[in-house]
């Protein structure tokens, strides 16, 4: 056996402001690459990781890619198959862009392709959630589901898992800025209140329903006014340098809506066109530079494909 495959899986914006753990969408860049080979030996080996500055474990039980691939192999009744994995990180870790998700999804898509697509991408979601559980202590699906399926995704229920692909306006763009401060998802989850007032829940589910309706109706105003989060953002925004100033700059530059990407520190805006998205990233990066913070930016349409085979 020497079958080998190279796969790219995309970054994702989870929560989409109001939908903590239930909404997410994929972008075209950045993302991660996995090269996977089936071997004569037995067991999974991670032979190389690049782009992680030595931060990710090579131990197959601790690495999210190998751990979720092992769950997949157990499931298909081939727990001892020999697998070699190279992981090439092409995106920042701890950025709020679904970094662990992109790696895990690339690995699962690769192994499933090598085994003749025994499962659909949707059926791979629970295996990818195992990777998230290992990475941050909770198997949330709002990064891995859009990374696997592309587009906007709603996790209507976790038990049982019920994943719905949502439509979106064709010309929707995302402007993403990653201020280079590290916010591990595990810590960013622990700081959130676990109890909410009923009146706050009412506000929040009104916005979630509004955002989903806006996506269906291709109504930018409704999308924008629904991108409000009174439960999580007030706490997490503390970790992001000048968050409210960044919001005001983005909105003044024409953003439809603005907020924290996943658990941060990346922020994102949705826009009606590419030029507005580029103007927003430029303004936000300029502001961050002015307060001494380096940043990276990405402008992308909503990714429609999910993971793809590169060669
Ligand atoms: N829904 C998750 C969170 C996404 O906000 O913690 C993490 O990227």
Commentary on this structure:
It catalyses: L-homoserine + ATP = O-phospho-L-homoserine + ADP + H(+). The structure is a single chain. The protein is an alpha+beta fold and 311 residues long. It has 2 domains: 4-167 and 305-310, 2-Layer Sandwich (Ribosomal Protein S5, domain 2); 173-301, Alpha-Beta Plaits (2-Layer Sandwich), CATH 3.30.70.890. The chain has helices at 64-75, 99-114, 121-136, 144-149, 185-190, 198-217, 220-226, 233-236, 243-252, 274-290, and strands at 4-14, 23-50, 81-88, 152-158, 161-166, 173-179, 257-260, 267-271, 295-301, 308-309. Strands 1, 2, 3, 4, 5 and 10 form a 6-stranded antiparallel β-sheet that branches. Strand 4 (152-158) and strand 5 form a beta hairpin. Helix 1 (64-75) runs parallel beside helix 2, helix 2 packs across helix 3 and helix 6 (198-217) runs antiparallel to helix 7 (220-226). The chain starts with a strand and ends with a strand. The mean pLDDT is 96. Bound molecules: L-homoserine.
């Amino acid at each position: 056996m020497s079958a080998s495959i190279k796969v790219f899986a995309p970054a994702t914006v989870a929560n989409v402001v109001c939908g903590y753990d239930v909404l997410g969408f994929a972008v075209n860049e950045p993302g991660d690459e996995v090269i996977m080979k089936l071997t004569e030996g037995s067991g999974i080996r991670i032979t190389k990781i690049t782009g992680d500055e030595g931060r990710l474990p090579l131990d197959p039980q601790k690495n999210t890619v190998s751990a979720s691939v092992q769950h997949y192999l157990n499931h298909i009744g081939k727990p001892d198959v020999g697998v070699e994995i190279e992981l090439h990180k092409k995106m920042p870790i701890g950025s709020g862009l679904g970094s662990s998700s992109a790696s895990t999804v690339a690995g699962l898509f690769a192994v499933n392709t090598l085994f003749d697509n025994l499962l659909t991408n949707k059926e791979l979601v629970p295996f990818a959630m195992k990777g998230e559980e290992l990475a941050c202590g909770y198997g949330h699906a709002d990064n891995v589901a859009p990374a696997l399926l592309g587009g906007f995704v709603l996790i209507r229920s976790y038990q049982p898992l019920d994943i719905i692909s949502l439509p979106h306006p064709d010309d929707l763009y995302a402007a993403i800025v990653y201020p280079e401060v590290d916010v591990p998802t595990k810590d960013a989850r622990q700081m959130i209140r676990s109890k909410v007032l009923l009146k706050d829940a009412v506000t929040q589910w009104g916005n979630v329903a509004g955002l989903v309706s806006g996506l269906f109706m291709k109504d930018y105003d409704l999308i924008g006014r629904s991108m409000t989060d009174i439960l999580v953002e007030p706490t997490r925004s503390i970790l992001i340098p000048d968050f409210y100033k960044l919001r005001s700059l983005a909105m003044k530059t024409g953003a439809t809506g603005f907020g924290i990407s996943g658990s941060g520190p990346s922020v994102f805006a949705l826009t009606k066109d590419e030029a507005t998205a580029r103007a927003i990233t430029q303004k936000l990066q300029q502001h961050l530079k002015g307060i001494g913070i380096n940043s990276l930016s990405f402008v992308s349409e909503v990714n429609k494909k999910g993971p793809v085979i590169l060669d």
